[in-house]
Amino acid sequence: MRVHHRTDGAGRGLLLVSSLGSALELWEPQVGPLAGRFRLVRFDQRGHGDTPAPQGPYTIEELACDALELLDRIGLERVSICGLSLGGAVATWLAANAPDRVDRLVIACAAARFGTPDGWHARAAAVRAGGTEAVVDGVLERWFTPAFAAANPGVVAGFRAAFCAVNREGYAGCCEALAAWDASAHLGRIRAPTLVLSGSEDSVAPPDRGRAVAEGIAGARFTLIEDAAHLASAGQPAAFTRAVLDHLTEEAR
């Protein structure tokens, strides 16, 4: 699967893996600070942004293999990875199953399981029938705190537009990947130094779920991002970026 991608900066490789319903522009607040230290690689998951949408359902393994194919294509043998939400599941799979490719790991706004299989299948059916517009309002309510949404209507409008542009089959296929995902079989195999981040107001992957992920990975650390909902990288970009950068550059200090 040839995914659309963008690279910025130079240095050690850092793969950024986006959430369900967002394109690579999700990471714009992080590009400036991180590209000064790393060669950033961002990509659009299946059906998101400019990546095609094959017929679903998909699996997390397939989405992870899309990322590995991209790394092979651009000649990066070993990278650090930061994944958010669905991207956190993909990052977890990569660290557990392709450990020679992963230097350091950040799992953000993620849980061992997201919701229930029935809920994901219902959402996939709703989106196949009515497009992503059918679910956008509820998603945005979970992505941002009410205070952030009120203070930053332009940011929220941009994410709404990007979400509504996601291909319905691509979104539904990714929902089905999350319906089948269970990280519990993978966490114990992760050996990369790991940071788990949670937003304090995240109702999708609450902090206790993030702490449980960290407890399942040997030596992992947990950090809470205050006043952030599910899209913590956008809701609290400075705190999120600082935590990621501190973890990824720890060896250099």
Structural account:
This protein has 253 residues and is of the alpha/beta class. The protein is 45% helix and 16% strand. It contains eleven helices and seven strands. The protein has helices at residues 28-35, 60-74, 86-97, 117-130, 136-143, 146-151, 153-164, 168-180, 207-215, 232-235, 237-248, and strands at 5-8, 12-17, 38-43, 79-84, 102-108, 194-199, 221-225. A seven-stranded mixed beta sheet has the order 1-3-2-4-5-6-7, with helices on both faces. α3 links the parallel β4 and β5. α1 runs parallel beside α11 and α2 packs across α3. The mean pLDDT is 97.
Mean pLDDT: 97
* Biggest sheet character: 7 strands, mixed
DSSP strand count = 7
Uncertain residue ranges: none
Gap between N and C termini: 38 Å
Strand line-up in the sheet with most strands? 1-3-2-4-5-6-7
Number of H- or I-type helical stretches: 11
Strand content: 15-25%
Describe the protein's topology:
Layout lengths: L4 E4 L3 E6 L10 H8 L2 E6 L16 H15 L4 E6 L1 H12 L4 E7 L8 H14 L5 H8 L2 H6 L1 H12 L3 H13 L13 E6 L7 H9 L5 E5 L6 H4 L1 H12 L5
Helix pairs in contact: 1-11, 2-3, 4-8
Feature tags:
253 residues, alpha/beta, seven-stranded mixed β-sheet, 7 strands, 45% helix
Compact summary:
By secondary structure, this protein is α/β, with parallel strands linked by helices.
